[in-house]
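#struct-pred

JT: dropping the chains for the assembly here, can someone run the whole complex?
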Amino acid sequence: WEAAGYLPFSRAKIGSFFQETPVLKNPFLEDALLRGYLRRHLPQEAAFSDLCAFGERVANEVDGWGRECEVTPPRLVHFDPWGRRVDHIVTSPAWKRMKDLSAQEGLVAIGYERSFGEWSRVYQMSKLYIFSPSSGLYTCPLAMTDGAAKVIQSIGLSWPVDEAYSRLTTRQPERFWTSGQWMTERQGGSDVASGTETVAVPQTDGSYKLHGFKWFTSATDADMALTLARVQDRTGATTPGSRGLSLFYGEVSRDEGGRLKGIEVQRLKDKLGTRQMPTAELLLDGLPAHRLSEEGKGVASIANMLTITRIHNSISAAAAMRRVVQLARDYATRRTAFGKLLKDHPLHMQTLARMEVETRGAFLLVMEVCRLLGREESGMATQLDAHLLRLLTPVAKLYTGKQAVAVVSEGLESFGGQGYIEDTGLPGLLRDAQVLSIWEGTTNVLSLDVLRSVARSSGMVLHAYFTHAKSLLAGASNVSPLAPAVKAVNGALSELEDFVQIAATRATGYLELAARDLAYSLARIYTGALLIDHACWKGASSSDTYAALRWCEHDLCPVATKQARGCYDLSTAPLDAALVYDR
Ligand code: UCC
Ligand code: FAD
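RK: done, full complex below.
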């Protein structure tokens, strides 16, 4: 009976076919562009062997921890069993392992040790790029930790932050601290100047106590935070707006009873993605703090942190694209449809190739920003480099954030229905990508930051942009396979120059309406130039040339296209509003 399979309650017959799963291989060895870029700019064996070993560890060990972080999200325990308020944020063992790993691997420290001189940031970010999609979002606290170290370094390593700096940048897990960045309040995350109600009450010893409510605080298990508040004068009055904001440093610590000093965790956010990481609402109820900036210079002082965290954001965006492409191309060698493997369907390959082009462009744009940051920090930056860094940081962040959502979404589709199934781990990639264009400045707010950078520099950032973009094309003038791409970028640069001249003569409001398209144009043209430049390198491959050609088929200068159609004319704003509210 048994042998004949007649058991009345035998297992359901579900067929014998089981799809082979996509396999994550060493993300460093799988990435031709990353290796090519480093061979060109940072050909040191020490960097290669470290990245290769780390890539192996990411694929075989760390990726599993990342998954564990996703399925064991943090939870908040408000009270101990005897009713005392404790506000413990309980995180998974995997999340704690990520912290130790980050210290050991020097994921923040590398940027401050500067063992590779001006290329140290490129090296650090290459490591984070490999790590990010497997990190269970641990790259979020690392970004803020890096940003805090940068702010402290720029202010000066003296008491009370010298100890914090050494902990943020150490490789010793038992000493390593992470930092939070508490800027957002209920009234405004973009408009921090109007939205910040937190007050800083001066104490007799020169320190302060902070009282306020921080609406979004990520990786809230941090050891310290940088935050903004308004100093109260003797009458309790504060200065409104940006001029009233100062930068503060506070430690997250507990009293003998286990209670947080001066902080209550109101609740954890219930989020679309980034669920691996706690994001909390915090009541600051007398948090002991030290003022780090001059009074009223809070926003300008935290700008260094914003630069670093926005670069990390861009790295995570490029990394998310790279990861989905790596998995999709592996899957295409294992999945059969209509009698052949997916990789043998030209239309499917075209789809993946388009994702690859976007990923390559994002990678080169972000690495360019890292290169400039490294030059600035090692004292090598020219004025042109400094201008480019200021302009390209928001450009890269806003452009790659949007690209990541599009590419990861397309990537999910390339797994068919399985791309929509939770326990494949794939949907989490899309959920986590969606935040990249929201936090650290939304797309519009960063587009306006691009305008701010132009205005504050009296146009010098644009001058640097045009000069450098043209110089990137110089090596390609005699490379005939690249001719169509060079022609497209040159044409787009001319259109952009024309746009800038015309826009300068228009009424206020014109540039604001054009801001997003201008930022996209800056991103696409510059990325085209970077792809061309990379394809001219003597070690480049035919795929590098092909990627440059394909990229340059984009509308590289949408701001000129739309300007020609009258999209930013004075009549447009009321028409847009009328369309939106048409009932
Ligand atoms: O979201 C957050 C954390 C998420 C978790 C971390 C993830 C990291 C990536 C991980 C990947 C997995 S933290 C919250 C982030 N929030 C924002 O990004 C705020 C968005 N809003 C803005 O960016 C606004 O533009 C503001 C708040 C920066 C500025 O608004 P205001 O008040 O209009 O500013 P002002 O008056 O134009 O500028 C005030 C000063 C000026 O300098 P001074 O005082 O010397 O004249 C500006 O030049 O700040 C200077 N400034 C800057 N400097 C403003 N923005 C910048 C900048 N980007 N760079 C340099
Ligand atoms: P709003 O400013 O209300 O924006 C709403 C919309 O209006 C957006 O589309 C925006 O682009 C648009 N808009 C706003 N101003 C303009 C303008 N002038 N012109 C055109 N369009 C405009 N913050 C922290 O400080 N610390 C954290 O750790 C932190 N962690 C976060 C974690 C997560 C998961 C999320 C989702 C957010 C986190 N934030 C954190 C908050 C985040 O930085 C803000 O939500 C973000 O900056 C946007 O601010 P807002 O929510 O007030 O949106």
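JT: nice. The pocket of flavin-adenine dinucleotide (ligand 2) is lined by residues 181-184, 188-191, 216-218, 271, 274, 279, 435, 438-439, 441-442, 444-445, 448 (CB under 6 Å). The CA atoms of residues 93 and 285 lie 30 Å apart.
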